[in-house]
Amino acid sequence: MLCALAAIPILIAVAVRLSSAVPAGRGPAFLDRITQNGLFVGVTAMVVSVPLFLPLTVGVVAGDTIAGEAGQGTLRYLLVAPAGRIRLLLVKYAGAAVFVVVGPLVVALTGAGIGAALFRVGPVTLLSGDTIGTGEAMVRLLLIAAYLAVSLLGLSAIGLFISTLTDVPVGAMAATVVLSVVAQVLDALPQLEWLHPWLFSHYWLDFGDLLRQPVSWDSFAANVLLQGGYIAVFGALAYGRFITKDVLS
Amino acid sequence: MTRGLTKRFGHQLAVDGVDLAVPKGAVFGFLGPNGSGKTTTIRLLLGLAAASSGSMRVLGEEMPRKLSDVLPRVGALVEGPAFYPFLSGAANLRRIDAADPYASAGTRRARVQSALERVGLTHAADKLVRAYSLGMKQRLGIANALLAPRELLVLDEPTNGLDPQGTREVRSLVRSLSADGATVFVSSHLLAEVEQICTHAAIMSAGRLVAQGTLAELRQAGQARIRVLTPDPGPAAQVLARLGLTATLNPDGATGGTSAGAHAGTDAVLFAPLPAAPSTVPRETAGAAKTGEQQAAAPGAAAPEAVVAALVAAGVRVRGFATEQVSLEDRFVALTGEGFDVVQ
């Protein structure tokens, strides 16, 4: 799955390289900047993968956590070992969290790498108009990856909870991914504006603030708070469900 | 071990008020037809599922409250082996062992090695489980139960899918574990297997425990019967009736079968149950010596040797006579019912 994630920036970079210049303002955000600065491959790839591709992989990993073990029958042996239900749940969530951190990082670093290989790399002009050096730009790129990681932690907590509900891993994966899509659709409906700040996907695309000088941390902080709330709620639900679950698979 | 243990799934009682007592150090056979609640009981005992009511103690500890203290002392094979197909056998065992916080990581490699050796999988240790046969997976499952020294082993259908060598090895393994002082709890529907290795047994049927005790007790609870091979079934039945025995002619519809060629087909086989002996004192040592557990029936006339004498005196041509102890299988069928349908 990490390979699939890495393929996104590579695809973007190769496509842009082979095609003629992209007209400014068309295509995904930052796409037109790639030919001027290879580092933007990473940024563009993250923008492209946030709505579906990253949630998809996170849904697969988080949905598989408990349901995958149950479906395979190994859950009962882990529990008899005894792994301890709380401990197992924590370890499984930690595993999903590691993937959530590594996923965006892979996209960002592969993007920067392939961008550096195919295009020139130089000082980056930020959204606020300031220009920063390449080193500072790499730091910003990693910051965006960290922002996405935080953004997806809530979704992986939801996936963990759904995973404790079933013995069929594919069902848990699909449900998690569908939820992430539904949340984004709801987020796009202006009639539901009162709901928007509560949707776990609300801040997903707000990492543009990290491309300003000075960095605006408002959306980062709000995002951390929101995702923390999701982790607390769905972590508690997963705990409540799993601790009393009859393991019959 | 358990008291009034009940598990309800919706409106279906899977385990209904089971009082199970497994003596320490015993090899305990847990019998029952498919769907009688054996595995569910085991799941309850191991804390995989919560009981609807009732209480249980495992290794003297209240369950499931002391679950984390008890489970490291228990090795289990529950409802068939389950492993990650993309890992090797040894890697699978190491992973499960790592899940046990009490298992020392330092000795892990050695313990995995010796467990694999005990089930004869040393050569396949580094093969992917995907490439294992059913029997090899079963062996790996047993190896998993043996990763650490255990006080109680719960083996659910341990010989499933094993070849005859494997079955024999499992039997000797169970004996050696028992000799080391471990209590072994074997669930099975293979009666011959239970008869060979177990000291105690319990029989489940439709979620209820219908019998339990030592093997000898279980067998004794059933009646012994006599089997008479004779060409004169009519007079023989009369004689038996006079002795207070109810004879059944050829209950299986079989012919005399084994008698000499000329008489084949003309002999009838009579069966008559011997009344259960209220007194346990063997009357005739000669008669009792043969089966060891044979006891003379209460009305003196019904002793096996007296029956033969009476038959011969009445001019019945007795070509064969035997007393048969009820096998565990007969007992099992008597308790759980005939027929192939799963009891609901």
General description of the model:
- The complex is a heterodimer of chains A (249) and B (344).
- Chain A has 249 residues and is mostly helical.
- Chain A has one domain.
- Chain A has helices at 2-18, 40-49, 53-72, 74-80, 85-118, 134-165, 169-188, 218-243; strands at 124-125, 131-132.
- In chain A, strands 1-2 form a two-stranded antiparallel sheet.
- In chain A, strand 1 (124-125) and strand 2 form a beta hairpin.
- In chain A, helix 2 (40-49) crosses helix 5, helix 3 (53-72) runs antiparallel to helix 7 and helix 6 packs parallel to helix 8.
- The longest helix of chain A is centred in the middle third of the chain and has 34 residues, at 85-118.
- Chain B starts with a strand and ends in an 8-residue tail after the last helix.
- Chain B has two domains: 2-219, Rossmann fold (3-Layer(aba) Sandwich), CATH 3.40.50.300; 223-325, no CATH class.
- In chain B, the strands form three sheets. Chain B has a six-stranded mixed sheet, with helices on both faces. Chain B has a four-stranded antiparallel sheet with strand order 2-1-4-5, with helices on one face. A four-stranded antiparallel sheet of chain B has the order 12-13-11-14, with helices on one face.
- In chain B, helix 3 packs across helix 4 (108-118) and helix 4 (108-118) crosses helix 5.
- In chain B, 32% of the residues lie in helices and 22% in strands.
- Chain B has helices at 38-45, 67-70, 89-98, 108-118, 134-145, 164-179, 191-197, 215-221, 233-242, 285-289, 304-313, 328-336; strands at residues 2-9, 12-18, 27-31, 53-58, 61-63, 74-77, 152-156, 183-188, 200-205, 208-214, 225-230, 248-249, 268-273, 320-324.
- Chain A binds chain B through residues 72-74, 76-84, 87-88, 244, 246-248, and chain B through 43, 46-50, 67-68, 71-72, 74, 76, 78-80, 82-84, 96-97, 99-101, 144.
